[in-house]
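Fold sample X.
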Amino acid sequence: MQDELRSIMAPLALEFSWRELDPVRGGKVVPELAVITFCGRCTADGLMPLASTSGPLGWTHISDGDILPFAEVDCDGIRAFLQKPLLALRPAERETRFGRAVARVLAHELYHIFAGTTHHASCGVAKSGFTVRDLLEPGFRFQEQALRSFQQTRLRDHNDVLKR
């Protein structure tokens, strides 16, 4: 999952430092912090053929119209959405593909947080809904327009910090 996320986010020049939340609570604050909660069972082992469910696979928290640096990834929802195609794969391939899917949902939510937008693109990782193919097949990335929007937001925010 971390490798796929790094690959997706590479054009945005973001580097990730993965930490458990408890040590961060000790007072260390960084300006570009996102707190992600992974809900449910975040592995592809033990899949069972069940009916698929629908609903958001991840979400970013908003308060009074402001995007907060908190998001959740619904691993159980991703498992349910992908279980049929995952069951068709060899067990060794399941974890890789499941990790890819979780990374793509996470990248989408991080886009909302770091681009500071609730808007979606028409295609790519920033679009509003994903297909099974989007989550499992290689090469699903941000479209150029979403990358430009993100970079403009980061440049604007950087300039705002310099003006203070």
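Fold sample Y, listed below.
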Amino acid sequence: MKNKEIQEKRMKEYFIQATRNILKSEGIKGISVRNIADQAGYSYATLYNYFKDVNDLVFLCVNDFQKECKEYTINQTSKTSDGIDKLKKIVMAYIGYFIEYPGIFDLFYIAPIGDFGTKQSTIDVINNSLDEVCETQWNYCITHNIYTSVQVGILKNKLKYTVIGLLLLYLNRRSPKSYSEFMNNANKEVEQLIRN
């Protein structure tokens, strides 16, 4: 790599990391060109030398967060054998990831689509987030005749709406009031969906 390429990569990473930090702590509401530039330690004009707009940065972060979430679920479930139990643990780990990073939950599931500009690929990553982290186990369940592909399609939708709904209520501090009660409720709901 030439010095100019190394410098460009380094500068981009400063802005990407600043955007990631803001999204994790404040959610999409904290994103502005000036806020990102301040966090990165450069002028907002410098940001435009490396990115077309803020949506480019958000897109890169969404992809990074999805990869991070997938790695998190893999690490949390690595000692569990494939099948229904692992599927359940992956879903619970997915819930745990968003409990740990509520700003990312806001970005994925509360921010209006218009906040992403015209990046349909960003919206697709978000819409398929839970499906993607569970994909290996869904395939395992189909190939081992635990579920049919039709059943998997139905379960994917039910799980997605249940998980998002549970997180939405908890992260907005509406219900339930304690973390342990929330996790207990989530565990029961996920168990019931997967076992039935």
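Sample Y note: DSSP finds ten helices and no strands in the chain.
Also: The longest helix spans residues 3-26.
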